[in-house]
Amino acid sequence: MPFPLSLEQKQTAFWLAVWAAFLFLLITLGPVLTPFLAAAIFAYALNPGVDRLDRIRFGRRLTMPRALSVTIVVVLFFAALIAMVLIVVPVLQKEIPLLQAQIPAFLAKANDLLAPRLQDLGIKVRVDSAGIKQLAAEQMAASGDAIWAAVLNSARVGGTAVLGWLATLTLIPVVLFYLLLDWPAMLGRVAGCVPRRYIVPTMAMAREVDLLLAQYLRGQLLVMLVLAIYYSVALAIAGFDVALPVGIITGLLVFIPYLGFGLGLVLALISAVLQFSDWSGLIAVAVIYGIGQVLEGFFLTPRLVGERIGLHPLAVIFALLAFGQLFGFVGVLLALPASAVLMVAFNHLRRHYLSSSFYNA
Questions:
Q1: Of 191, 220, 280, 331, which cross-links 323 as Cys (Cβ 3.0–4.6 Å)?
Q2: Do residues 179 and 66 make contact, with C-beta atoms less than 8 angstroms apart?
Q3: Which stretches are transmembrane (predicted)?
């Protein structure tokens, strides 16, 4: 015979069901929440700057309005992002025309190197520009309908993706402004929703998480600075003309896993092909970026980021792989801060377990 539930147990079950439904709704609306999640991350990182501007006094009673503080911080933040873009664009504008001019000579070298070996295997293909044009024309003539259908399908999918990205990029500044404007009030409302009997431990956990995330941000900034200096100096020693912009790009974008490294590597490889007539440039890029990856993955990130949030280097590597497997690119981006939050919860759960009668009985 089932035991009747008390009023408190019924209320607990009801609110657990409500929160479970809310969590399911958030998971279902995941793609829609992307700009809000990105804006919330930026707001958390930028809010200390807004609070510092709020404390500036003009006279005895006048302080800077929060709306003005938010506007200054948001403008400076997006100005920094635009400055990074303006560093990349001139490099691309310089290298792409040079690359186009070097493509025929590069293909001629590739043909001289590969064509004899391919002929030994019974494959008669020229790897120069004329041979590639002929091969492309034959393939398009043989499967023109399939290629046209694929192009149309890619245009539809790509057009939808571009519109989605444009909408996301437009929403992020707007959402960021309003989040920063109402940040203290929102935190107060969230704290007000916590049951009163749990408010003290919940606020203690929140302060602990905030401290860890602040340490994470400082550690990540140190990693970006060290890598920007390393890649710039190493490429300059190797004799690259674009060492400074490529090194800065690779270092500053390292907080987005694989993107900063990949973009910097591509730019460095293009520069090596254009600037050096032999293989020395490509070898230098391979050595510099290989050492950089080892330096970042096995020393800088575990030491400067992992130790600051109390994670073992193996735990850092596991967190990156696990969150990437579960949530894709966004999971890789949020792996370490989310691990810091989970670590705080685990530590509190462990202390509760060690003090429980179940453990001490």
A1: 331
A2: no
A3: 13-46, 67-89, 162-181, 221-240, 246-270, 282-301, 313-346
pLDDT in tens, 24-37: 877 677 667 777 87
pLDDT mean over 340-360? 79
* Residue range(s) defining the domain that contains residue 326: 196-361
Tokens of 341: 């939050």
Q: Is the pTM of this model over 0.70?
A: no
Looking at the fold, whether 51 and 176 belong to one and the same domain comes out as yes
Same-domain check for residues 178 and 235:
no
